[in-house]
């Protein structure tokens, strides 16, 4: 079995003089291939996306990356072999360095022993010495950018390296790097010297010695601003560093740049104080074995994977083992923070090493190793050149079990792991309703049920509190979107049709305790369509739809504008603001608003009616303006994906659009986006996940999708902060329905094809299942909600309630 992903039909057979043997990885900025020169030299080739090649600013940044990589090439970096930054499609090739990233090594084998720490300190210092000699400051030295190879450590990724003379392509004071490993002067946006890299070396050594950064704090890393504050003002935690190295590491972590040793002094201190190497091996045997497996791909006998034939199906890659969480989430906010913005790779794969203590991967599981290619942590306005570069390396095949022996259980992160069906659940009660329900919601022991004509409220025991109350939602929204209402603060908020021909719309507040109408506000635009409530954030209800209005332009006179609208209503003051969103680059825009659980920014996703020109933007609710706008990463191109707007879920509220302070954005896969700057903090495995929901505490993100190759549903659980896969698995489903998700009470509820499963949120195992429809149902069930130890769904005979325990 080839350790590489096969070339795709759209991949070129060669780049420059290098024939391509397979894919090593892919990011939002391009793809990385394993290439071989006519003389047999193995290289890693980064090919930039054609659409980015047309951006002069992007070309300039990529050209600077090539220059930095060429200048820094040396014995302990990944040498630049060849590049064509000015070609029709820019590319660069570096020597392939088989190795294991320091972060993965610590996750696999735990902290490094003191002899290995000494060799690490000296080897990285030697690398920095060559980088500084070239007139560069690396600016992003961290465990992920240090490769452990048989000949010693290598420093990689020069995507944000800058000349020491101050030459840069970024604005003055802009901060780039990873907060947990930044120097104090870097945190304050001050000019940097080589001493900044020495500080990062000290922080990296602390991680290697104990598995955590020196400024993580007792409760974990926390928000970037808090980490940067500790970096600038607090003393590092050196308790895990061996006593023989503690003084050296403390000197590297001195707050004042002038108090830190130079890289040459670090090498000299290690050489004079440490125990000399008595053998060639400087790493534990398990890490040496992993490095040797990574080198197997260089064997000329390994055939190049053949591209799949036209029309053939592509089997999704298995997911990667979860990586150790970084010491701080790699994102930052330039708004309201004295530290500026911490920039990270926008679209790179987040895959890392398996967490310590995880069981061995199953047969054929891919191992991913970081390569020495420039571009680790850069994200500039309009797109950066950096993205994670990873090598798929298969584990040795495990021996087949002897006759009668039990096969090893699949790993928890294996998507082929069968999660089971569980037992058949029994309903707690069924409450008859006169019409089919289109949405369910609840709060404080009250479940609110909406149909296309009425509203009811029930208590957890199935007793009707009130209703039916006459209510006509916008028919287009009720029939298509499903999110017609929201419940918050003892009120249900929904849009009501009224007036002549029921063309006018109004926002209606209904008291949960009595069903009485508290107030009604007319929509700010005449006869809007597709109007529904998207969500509630900090006492403001957000309503979306499509509207038109006339405006007076000082130069053009009377103008008619039309497009997606946003209407925000402060429920305490019953006032708000409105806007029709237009885009000169989009002829017929359509948009979708996502309202997170917290924060001051909304996610706006827009596209043309034909699915083109897909963009995302953040709307600041304080200024009522776009904080940033950019092309949608991984924009959907599949017709089915375009038809579904990139996702199967019909909900846009907080649990379905945010987690851990990040936006959850779905296109070709799931991405977590920093609301502060639009950077992609992490990306899911290459699986077309569509249904998304966060746990009630916001720490876990659950996602699901139809499996392409079988009648089953793939389910994943991710760490909301890092994107690490906590568990994955498959649920057999013969109906072929689209999955939707709700999360409550340590349970993940999945509904598809007229059936519901309750999965244990901790490991994904199915507790129970329930068939709520006897018909073939391929559309997602919109009337579906969970809370208070129960889950509610529209069944064939009315509103059905089930216990989280299934009985």
TrEMBL record:
<keyword id="KW-0418">Kinase</keyword>
<dbReference type="InterPro" id="IPR008271">
    <property type="entry name" value="Ser/Thr_kinase_AS"/>
</dbReference>
<feature type="compositionally biased region" description="Pro residues">
    <location>
        <begin position="316"/>
        <end position="332"/>
    </location>
</feature>
<feature type="domain" description="Protein kinase">
    <location>
        <begin position="18"/>
        <end position="283"/>
    </location>
</feature>
<dbReference type="GO" id="GO:0005524">
    <property type="term" value="F:ATP binding"/>
</dbReference>
<dbReference type="Pfam" id="PF00069">
    <property type="entry name" value="Pkinase"/>
</dbReference>
<dbReference type="GO" id="GO:0004674">
    <property type="term" value="F:protein serine/threonine kinase activity"/>
</dbReference>
<feature type="region of interest" description="Disordered">
    <location>
        <begin position="301"/>
        <end position="332"/>
    </location>
</feature>
<dbReference type="InterPro" id="IPR011009">
    <property type="entry name" value="Kinase-like_dom_sf"/>
</dbReference>
<keyword id="KW-0067">ATP-binding</keyword>
<feature type="region of interest" description="Disordered">
    <location>
        <begin position="393"/>
        <end position="414"/>
    </location>
</feature>
<dbReference type="InterPro" id="IPR015943">
    <property type="entry name" value="WD40/YVTN_repeat-like_dom_sf"/>
</dbReference>
<dbReference type="InterPro" id="IPR017441">
    <property type="entry name" value="Protein_kinase_ATP_BS"/>
</dbReference>
<feature type="binding site">
    <location>
        <position position="46"/>
    </location>
    <ligand>
        <name>ATP</name>
    </ligand>
</feature>
<dbReference type="Pfam" id="PF13360">
    <property type="entry name" value="PQQ_2"/>
</dbReference>
<dbReference type="InterPro" id="IPR000719">
    <property type="entry name" value="Prot_kinase_dom"/>
</dbReference>
<dbReference type="InterPro" id="IPR011047">
    <property type="entry name" value="Quinoprotein_ADH-like_sf"/>
</dbReference>
<keyword id="KW-0808">Transferase</keyword>
<dbReference type="InterPro" id="IPR018391">
    <property type="entry name" value="PQQ_b-propeller_rpt"/>
</dbReference>
<feature type="compositionally biased region" description="Low complexity">
    <location>
        <begin position="401"/>
        <end position="411"/>
    </location>
</feature>
<keyword id="KW-0723">Serine/threonine-protein kinase</keyword>
<protein>
    <submittedName>
        <fullName>Serine/threonine protein kinase/outer membrane protein assembly factor BamB</fullName>
    </submittedName>
</protein>
<dbReference type="InterPro" id="IPR002372">
    <property type="entry name" value="PQQ_rpt_dom"/>
</dbReference>
<keyword id="KW-0547">Nucleotide-binding</keyword>
